[in-house]
């Protein structure tokens, strides 16, 4: 790859969003340089490349930034067409995959996060929302190994939070949102997803994340909003 085409990822160790981008690039076999960002003290590079949201991830390709993880996944798919496909070939399949990835972002991740990080009636409400939304994911997975079918696709990449982070947050907060009995499909999916070598290569260490969330528990409970 020519120097001008160098690919950089601005990310954060514990961010499921920047881990999505790394996973997509690794599935495609695209080499990249990873630049860890301190989110408490944002770099000029991050502010310059993502002035709107000031968040990771940012993918910089050919000197040009692309932001928002789901947008970046599509960019990766469009740019490196060969190799592992992230989206199906037919327009309907592609539309469906985009729908589920957005559903996971809008309806599942924040409900699961808030089910873990709230208490009392608020927690009850988010648990109810999680239950309804996870039920839909269960149905979508039925009869398939991955959301993408036999192989990991864009929806699986987008669901990385549910596979790793959700379990950690449940353990830290001693709540059960996703469990084997209620969500057998998701449970099996999560096991298969996490046992893929390529996925393992771009996830944070579970113990490190457990310690991190334990140490931040009181502070996160006070924020009462998704902060991941
Ligand atoms: N919708 C964004 C979310 C990105 C996001 O929330 N990133 C967090 C890290 S996990 C961040 O950069 N937070 C810094 C901040 O909010 O100041 C995406 O999908 O890329």
Structural account:
This protein has 2 domains: 6-79, Glutaredoxin (3-Layer(aba) Sandwich); 91-223, Glutathione S-transferase Yfyf (Class Pi), Chain A, domain 2, CATH 1.20.1050.10. 57% of the residues lie in helices and 7% in strands. The chain has 11 helices and 4 strands. α1 links the parallel β1 and β2 (33-36). Glutathione binds next to α3. Residues 90-219 form the GST C-terminal domain.
Short description:
This protein has 228 residues and is an alpha+beta fold. The chain has helices at 16-28, 44-49, 69-79, 91-116, 120-141, 154-158, 160-173, 184-194, 197-200, 206-215, 217-223, and strands at residues 7-11, 33-36, 58-61, 64-67. The chain folds into 2 domains: 6-79, Glutaredoxin (3-Layer(aba) Sandwich); 91-223, Glutathione S-transferase Yfyf (Class Pi), Chain A, domain 2, CATH 1.20.1050.
The fold-level CATH name of the largest domain is: Glutathione S-transferase Yfyf (Class Pi), Chain A, domain 2
The run of helices and strands is: EHEHEEHHHHHHHHH
Query: What does the largest sheet look like?
Result: 4 strands, mixed
Strand order of the largest sheet: 2-1-3-4
CA-based gyration radius: 17 Å
Number of helices: 11
What CATH architecture of the largest domain do you see? Up-down Bundle
| Head-to-tail CA distance between termini | 33 Å
- Quote the average pLDDT: 95
Q: Fraction of residues in helices?
A: 55-70%
Q: Would you state the CATH class of the largest domain?
A: Mainly Alpha
What are the distinct ligands in this entry?
A: glutathione
Uncertain runs: none
Gross morphology: globular
> Which structural class is indicated by helix and strand composition?
alpha+beta
Number of strands: 4
